[in-house]
Design brief:
Layout (H helix, E strand, L loop, with lengths): L3 E10 L2 E11 L4 E5 L6 H9 L6 E6 L2 E2 L10 E4 L11 H11 L4 H14 L15 H13 L5 E5 L7 H18 L2 E6 L2 H7 L2 E6 L2 E6 L1 H6 L4 H6 L5
Helix pairs in contact: 2-3, 2-4, 3-4
Length: 238
């Protein structure tokens, strides 16, 4: 629903440069994977798009709107993290409803929206449980539901499936991809797993040491890597 433009984004932590002059355009409704090894700056870039980190320099646009100074809650982004952090003392229903409660949405509408999104993720029978009564895959579906319930323009995911076992990962992967296309949401998906990026993304941005080395379709980055590192990391070494 929105196009994201990153213009000359640099992020420093003290003297350390975590993001080094990042330029990237993510199209409306695109599924963009940020792929790179551990410590390459993927999460930092995602949190900068979310507004959790403010860039040291550079600008961020959602469509024509400069959001660089806009706090996270006013960017209409949905966030899903690796360690899905559900509220342990709240039932699934209340976990999903929470972002709407914050916005003072009327009760009836909350009820309707929570059930709608729970249905999409096949968790409508789990609404009365507590998070600890769920499997890992179910918990992650709840986290995705909570991110989607406020109908975000942008969905930001940080290695959301890396705690799941292989079979479940493939199942939730397909589900997530289907929902993203159905809802027409713009998604940025952080992963260090090249198979996941190749399977899910419309385009992949390969990151190393805070720099984007290459952006392209899975075919592009796999078959036409611009650097030895890119081919090697994607499993297609020269
Ligand atoms: P990735 O998600 O690709 O594993 P990160 O974006 O988490 O990488 O981190 C990139 C680099 O920035 C790492 O060297 C990390 O130690 C550093 N870094 C990340 N967040 C902070 C922070 N809040 N303070 C200081 N250094 C940080
Ligand atoms: Mg990370």
């Amino acid at each position: 629903m929105v196009k994201i433009i990153l213009k000359e984004i640099t992020k420093k932590f003290g003297d350390f440069t975590a993001l080094d002059n990042i330029n990237l355009k993510i199209d409306d409704r695109e599924f963009m994977a940020l792929l790179g090894p551990s410590g390459s700056g993927k999460s930092t870039l995602l949190y900068t798009i979310a507004g959790i980190y403010k860039p040291t320099s550079g600008r961020i646009y959602f469509d024509d709107r400069d959001v660089t100074e806009i706090p996270p809650k006013d960017r209409n982004v949905g966030l899903v993290f690796q360690n899905w952090a559900l509220y342990p003392h709240m039932k699934v229903f209340d976990n999903i409803a929470f972002p709407l409660e914050l916005r003072k949405v009327p009760k009836q509408e909350i009820e309707k929206k929570v059930r709608e999104v729970a249905k999409m993720l096949h968790i409508e029978n789990l609404l009365d449980r507590y998070p600890w009564q769920l499997s890992g895959g179910q918990q992650q579906r709840v986290a995705i539901a909570r991110a989607l319930v406020k109908e975000p323009d942008v969905l930001l995911l940080d290695e959301p499936l890396s705690n799941l076992d292989a079979l479940l990962r493939i199942e939730v992967r397909a589900e997530l991809k289907r929902l993203q296309k159905e809802l027409g949401i713009t998604a940025v998906y952080v992963t260090h797993d090249q198979a996941e990026a190749l399977a899910m993304a419309d385009r992949i941005a390969v990151i190393r040491e805070g720099k984007i080395l290459q952006v392209g379709t899975p075919d592009d980055v796999y078959y036409k890597p611009k650097y030895k590192f890119v081919g090697g990391f994607l499993g297609n070494p020269p």
